[in-house]
Design brief:
Layout (H helix, E strand, L loop, with lengths): L4 H24 L3 H26 L3 H7 L1
Helix pairs in contact: 1-2
Length: 68
């Protein structure tokens, strides 16, 4: 769970890194079956992190302070 804006930034950087890995594999893996096997974990992690970002951004900062 993302707790603050610094963690949000780190998560965005991780998402970017994973997306670049998938893009690189699209260029270098000639076999579609191998490609899908290679990127499935990356894509699952991207989905998980994007959900965390959405959850963090869906709450206004004043609500987070009030809950602490």
């Amino acid at each position: 769970m993302i707790a603050n804006d610094q963690e949000l930034q780190t998560t965005w950087e991780r998402i970017d890194w994973f997306q670049k890995q998938v893009a690189q594999l699209r260029k270098t893996e000639p076999n579609p079956v191998n490609y899908k096997a290679a990127v499935s974990g990356f894509l699952a992690e991207i989905d998980r992190m994007q959900l965390e970002v959405r959850e963090y951004l869906s709450v206004h900062p004043a609500e987070r302070v009030g809950a602490a």
